[in-house]
Design goal:
Blueprint (H helix, E strand, L loop, with lengths): L1 H20 L6 H65 L4 H66 L4 E10 L2 E9 L3 E10 L2 H17 L4 E10 L2 H9 L3 E2 L1
Parallel strand pairs: 3-4, 4-5
Antiparallel strand pairs: 1-2, 2-3
Helix pairs in contact: 1-2, 2-3
């Protein structure tokens, strides 16, 4: 089933690619399909690269641990030899037995402490490596989200202009008390589209953009403020809910 879906997706992407080569503009559905394909491949490649780097770091750490273990064995062997020598001297020098044992016990304890310190250091480095990898993955996801947002905003502007609207300005990342508005799209006939961009739209997104539009309206009293939402995936129920809430789906 999964292979069939992959073949279907690859076929669709190939057809879209040929369409673009011919100078044709992909439609809204094809744009979203192509965007999904590119994002999926980038995420997979990033994750695989991250896993490969992590495996390399783990191999390096294992080699270091093995080297430490070998050094510990050497130290232990040397200590065992010293203990044997001390035991022989104990037979001849009873008065020095206690002092010699105490000295050896302290050395063994020091070696054990060093081993524990090294192990803790290596464990910390492994944890730090995992954290850095996770941060890199999150950064890639964030960058891809920004790229997807820019593409969808541009597509929305194109759609409005095809429908007869003349866009005169686009403001991105406008702050409100309810959070950031992805874009304000101004048209020549004094309309302001308060646009929220989501890869997958849910009911709460519709409610939020409507509230943001109400706040934006106070800043632009002479404009017709229109709450709008767009995204990669908008289900039929969401579209009906948005329509009933006077939120435009673009």
């Amino acid at each position: 089933m999964e292979e069939t879906i992959k073949e279907w997706l690859n076929s669709k992407v190939s057809n879209i690619s040929e369409k673009i080569k011919q100078g044709k503009e992909p439609d809204w559905y094809e744009t979203n399909l192509l965007l999904y394909f590119l994002m999926e491949n980038d995420v997979k490649r990033t994750i695989n690269e991250g896993i490969s780097k992590l495996e390399g770091r783990i191999d390096s750490v294992e080699k270091k641990v093995e080297a430490v273990d070998n050094k510990v064995d050497v130290v232990k062997n040397e200590l065992e030899k010293k203990i044997e020598e001390v035991n022989k001297k104990v037979e001849a020098v009873d008065n020095k037995v206690d002092t010699t044992k105490q000295c050896l016990e302290k050395k063994i304890e020091a070696v054990d402490n060093k081993v524990d310190t090294i192990k803790q250091y290596l464990e910390k480095k492994i944890v730090e490596g995992d954290s850095r990898l996770e941060n890199e993955i999150n950064k890639v996801r964030s960058d891809m989200g920004i790229l997807a947002e820019e593409i969808l905003v541009d597509k929305t502007v194109e759609k409005l202009e095809k429908e007869g609207e003349k866009v005169i300005n686009v403001e991105r990342g406008v702050e409100t008390s309810l959070g950031e508005v992805d874009a304000l799209i101004f048209t020549e006939n004094k309309k302001v589209y308060v646009l929220e961009v989501k890869l997958k739209v849910d009911f709460n997104d519709v409610d939020v953009v409507k509230k943001k539009a109400e706040e934006i309206k106070r800043n632009y009293p002479d404009f017709q403020v229109i709450p709008a939402i767009t995204g990669g995936r908008i289900g039929r129920k969401i579209k009906n809910y948005a329509k009933g809430s006077d939120v435009t789906v673009l």
